[in-house]
Amino acid sequence: xxxxxxxxxxxxxxxxxxxxxxxxxxxxxxxxxxxxxxxxxxxxxxxxxxxxxxxxxxxxxxxxxxxxxxxxxxxxxxxxxxxxxxxxxxxxxxxxxxxxxxxxxxxxxxxxxxxxxxxxx
Length: 121
Prior knowledge:
Layout: H1 3-10, H2 14-20, H3 24-34, H4 39-48, H5 52-69, H6 72-85, H7 95-116
Helix pairs in contact: 4-5, 4-7, 5-6, 6-7
């Protein structure tokens, strides 16, 4: 799988990414580093512990990474949870609702991680 095919498969925007960083080998380095980021695991752990402030930071970071890498599908699902958890100290968070949004993120996240391992240098 080449980089263009990877972006097509994960629901990303290859054209946008290349318009910002017009160097496929550099983009590939960033793509491969994504799997080392701990934001998703931090998000899961924080939600399990019902620490909504930490969960917000983790999902906001994950969304930021997705924006920087033009992972459109991940931006879309992580944005929903980011906004839901925003100002969690001043509103009631329904754990089941947050966990449902996490499931949507996990599907997309796992697809990206699996596809990352299929990229040909």
